[in-house]
Design a protein that fits this description.
The protein has 400 residues and is an alpha/beta fold. 29% of the residues lie in helices and 22% in strands. A hairpin with a 2-residue loop joins β10 and β11. α3 packs parallel to α5 and α9 runs parallel beside α11. The longest helix has 14 residues. The mean pLDDT is 94.
């Protein structure tokens, strides 16, 4: 087994962390750049494997487009290939072929695109055939709001190029709203007028305008350093190029981390985080709802376990269909720490048991966020992380 042995030591001086550019913003910028036909430029594109692979696929003339394990690329490419009106087969890794995509395919079919499955119903690979008459495409579609926000983002990004535009009606509840808001903000930056109501988004047919996206630092990846800071009293980090005034929804973690004694302050170079004297008592419970922030769930849950905070968690349903079943993976690895993540019903999980430092290797299940969520425990003692290369998906320089 190939594993990384890791130990993090406290330093008295300020530690500077060069965060990667946002993968979420980069992936949207790449699609909008392609849709804009050369009017949109990008600076500081993410070096994450997912973003670099999407860039390659958008430049490819091949019929088969293999996204590997990139869920965002799978969803965005399916919609993009429809409006590009090109014969395409969008496929991916074995795990990707197990991740559902039916709501998006159904929506694209309802609009009038020729899209189908080449394997199991409801799952990739997806086959897109050209259509003869774009004027026959419908300008309205209905979609559940509690499915992946990437389905919704994929639809609204292609909307300006549809002859009747698109009215997307969302059936409540709507989850991961910050990611939808991010897509809308970027569309507006590219000159697209968007009419947004509580449960609908309308975009009329219109051309993209000249725009430049300078990709900001990634807030989801910033959380790993907040977690390290929470476990290293008296530590101070400068998270370079990060902004508290960001379009990324995961900036909400800055407020959450105050509960763990970590405060954030905006400086010219980025955000400085440090621990303060107050730390939450171990016998006080906390409640977190990850419905709008699923990608930070693993990190917060592991931190709560390490701090012996008997927290409860909601909004974890989408974790079952990520790179791995993240709930099952957390349950397996937290058990090595003497902690149980227990399903108590009503979409609620809670932690039970007293934390002990794991003596076994932490397995990562080919999931970048499993590796990085457990890595901050190295602030307490030496930890071993299996398959450390998985971080290349979103944060290639993480171990460095």
């Amino acid at each position: 087994m190939n594993a990384l042995s890791l130990r993090i030591h406290a330093k008295q001086q300020l530690v500077k962390i060069n965060l990667p550019a946002s993968k979420s913003i980069s992936n949207r910028a790449l699609i909008l750049q392609k849709l804009g036909g050369g009017k949109i430029t990008i600076g500081n594109l993410s070096e994450a494997r997912d973003s670099q692979r999407l860039l390659e696929l958008l430049q490819s003339n091949e019929i088969e487009l293999n996204v590997n394990d990139a869920g965002t690329s799978m969803r965005f490419l399916c919609a993009y290939c429809c409006v590009a009106n090109r014969k395409s087969i969008v496929t991916g890794s074995d795990r990707m072929l197990q991740r559902p995509i039916k709501p998006l395919v159904d929506a694209l079919k309802a609009i009038g695109f020729n899209i189908s499955y080449s394997g199991n119903e409801g799952f990739p690979p997806i086959v897109i055939e050209p259509i003869e008459n774009f004027n026959q495409l419908k300008g309205e579609v209905e979609l559940r709001g509690d499915v992946s926000s990437q389905f919704i983002s994929a639809l609204i990004m292609i909307a300006p190029l549809l002859p009747k535009g698109l009215l997307v009606k969302l059936l409540p509840p709507v989850t991961s709203q910050p990611y939808i808001d991010m897509s809308i903000a970027m569309l507006k930056e590219a000159g697209i007028k968007v009419e947004q109501k509580e449960n609908s988004i309308r975009i009329v047919s219109q051309p993209f305008q000249k725009a430049h996206f300078e990709i900001e630092a990634d807030w989801t990846n910033a959380l790993y350093w907040f977690s390290v800071c929470a476990l290293l009293p008296s530590s101070t980090f400068l998270l370079q190029h990060l902004s508290l005034d960001s379009i990324q929804g995961d900036k909400a973690v800055a407020d959450w981390m105050k509960l763990f004694g970590v405060v954030a302050n905006q400086q010219k170079e980025g955000v400085v985080i440090s621990t303060q004297q107050f730390l939450i008592p171990e016998n006080v419970g906390l409640h977190f709802n990850f419905i709008n922030h699923p990608d930070v769930a693993q990190t917060v849950i592991v931190l709560c376990a390490a701090k012996n905070i008997q927290a409860t968690f909601r909004g974890l349903q989408s974790l079952r269909i990520k790179e791995t079943d993240r709930i099952a993976a957390l349950q397996n690895e937290l058990a090595k720490c003497g902690v149980q993540l227990v399903d108590v019903g009503d979409d609620t999980f809670k932690l039970q048991g007293a934390f002990i430092f794991p003596s076994e290797v932490i397995n990562t299940y080919n999931d970048h966020r499993m590796a990085m969520a457990f890595a901050p425990l190295a602030a307490l003692s030496k930890i071993e992380i299996e398959a450390p290369w998985v971080v290349e998906k979103s944060y290639p320089t993480f171990w460095k």
